[in-house]
Write a structure and sequence with these properties.
The chain has one domain: Serine Threonine Protein Phosphatase 5, Tetratricopeptide repeat. The protein is built from 5 helices and no strands. It is mainly alpha-helical and 106 residues long. 23% of the residues are buried. It is globular. It comes from Microscilla marina ATCC 23134. Pfam families: TPR_8. InterPro entries: TPR-like_helical_dom_sf (IPR011990), TPR_rpt (IPR019734). This is Tetratricopeptide repeat domain protein.
Length: 106
Amino acid sequence: MDKKDNSVQTAQAYQQMMIKLMNTAEQMYDEGQFKQAIQYYDQVLTQRDNLSKADLTYMLYMRGSTQKELGNLEQARQDFLEAQRLGFEHPLGVDLIAEALASIGI
């Protein structure tokens, strides 16, 4: 195996790991296991420089939503505002972040 093939495999393995972490975080959220979900969102967000703008925005939005569920409104606000600053626009024009901020009184 040459160097190029090895780096492609490494990138694919990394991407699969990130997808698994994101999916696990969402599963924990869906099951109401919010503290565990936060841990997975935090793991994903430690790799923020390697995430697409869409994934980073979504992970911040979801971590903020999870913080809101836990009653941690200041942390939720910080995540929502950071996600909003990224300027990613939802393909359907839905501004979920503005709605989330409004739901916590901002």
